[in-house]
Design a protein that fits this description.
The complex is a heterodimer of chains A (150) and B (167).
Chain A lengths: L1 H7 L22 E11 L2 H17 L8 E13 L9 E19 H13 L5 E10 L13
Antiparallel strand pairs in A: 1-3, 1-4, 2-3
Chain B lengths: L3 H10 L28 E2 L1 H4 L13 E2 L11 H18 L12 E5 L2 E9 L6 H19 L3 E8 L8 E2 L1
Parallel strand pairs in B: 2-3, 4-5
Antiparallel strand pairs in B: 1-6, 3-4
The chains are: A alpha+beta (150), B alpha/beta (167).
Chain lengths: 150, 167
């Protein structure tokens, strides 16, 4: 009598049960051929020091990174008249310079890139902006899959 | 003795002349301070540097990425936030601010706004009260600006300790 009852009780074991779905494939990690990091700021010295930090971090983590590219700065100019009235010849010249530096990280997986970028982005100094461009390797869609040896 | 009612009637009919007391914002004079005869005017390092030294000997009081090419999406929001922060600090710590509360540095790293600068305490330094005020200010500004705000204000015994020069 008791045995019958105990067999009806669902038992839980101390094992993690993996949900096995026969049709779904395991999610594959993304592959990136190149991740380009572009850093912009008003102060060249700050950008230089940030790029040395980026290269140090990549070296320590054994991630291949291309050397830093220095691009020419982008200038925004605002000329104003110096005097309240007349004297068009004399002006004030205000300008803003945005310095740009680029660096690329090659051949990484999605998980590596997300970890690395999170770490780098946490250390971005104030007044500096970062832009990230991804070049991903994906499989061809099914309609364009090459069919064996034709 | 004047009849008060008659006095008010007279004032209403007189054309008013008033003195405008806005701060001087002329581009030739902004950021520059005039010397006094007996050298009593105190200048901090920030104030002593002329505007053409900005970026060379002098740094900005706000640091944000909205002046960079390609990142100008929320310039006005950031300007408004800065103004709100400065006015709040000026109003919330009225006896503690130095030099009219103009020398508060606002930095932004990611989403977090750091408010840094010097505050002065007179001899009465009530540490528990200061901690409470900091906590309140951080909480209030975070809720208001919808971004985490951290205060990194440092205390100095007296404003005179920030002096760089007397002109």
């Amino acid at each position: 009598m008791l045995r019958a009852v105990s067999s009806l009780i669902p038992r839980r074991f101390l094992a993690t049960q993996v949900a096995q779905s026969t049709s779904a494939e395991p999610e594959l990690d993304k592959l990136f051929k190149k991740i380009e990091i572009e850093v912009r700021g008003h102060d060249k010295a700050v950008l230089q020091s940030y790029m040395t930090f980026v290269h140090n971090a990549c070296n320590q983590l054994d991630i291949t990174a291309t050397p830093t590219e220095n691009l020419p700065y982008v200038r925004w100019v605002q000329p104003l008249l110096r005097s309240k009235f007349a004297h068009k010849k004399y002006k004030l010249h205000y300008e803003t310079r945005t310095h740009i530096k680029k660096c690329s990280v090659v051949n990484v997986t999605g998980s590596t890139s997300s970890t690395l970028l999170e770490y780098l982005q946490r250390q971005v100094p104030e007044g500096v902006a970062m832009k990230v461009t991804y070049e991903e390797i994906c499989a061809f869609p099914e309609t364009i899959q090459p069919k064996g040896n034709v | 003795m004047l009849n008060p009612l008659r006095a008010t009637a007279n004032i209403a009919t007189i054309a008013q002349r008033s003195i405008s007391t806005t701060p001087c914002m002329y581009k030739n004079k902004a950021g520059k301070h005039k010397a006094t005869i007996d050298r009593t005017r105190m200048l901090t390092y920030e104030m002593a540097q002329k505007p053409h030294h900005i970026g060379v000997r002098k740094a900005w009081l706000t640091w944000h990425s909205q002046n960079l090419e390609g990142f100008r999406q929320s310039q006005p929001i950031v300007l408004a936030q800065d103004e709100v922060i400065r006015r709040f600090i000026r109003g919330f710590f009225p006896q503690n601010i130095t030099i009219d509360g103009t020398e508060i540095v606002i930095k932004r790293r990611g989403n977090v706004v750091y408010v840094t600068g010097f505050l002065q305490h007179s001899r009465r330094l009530d540490i528990r009260r200061i901690y409470w005020m900091f906590g309140f200010a951080e909480e209030f500004l975070s809720i208001l600006l919808k971004q985490p705000v951290k205060l990194e204000l440092q205390f100095v015994a007296d404003e005179k300790e920030l002096a760089y020069n007397y002109i």
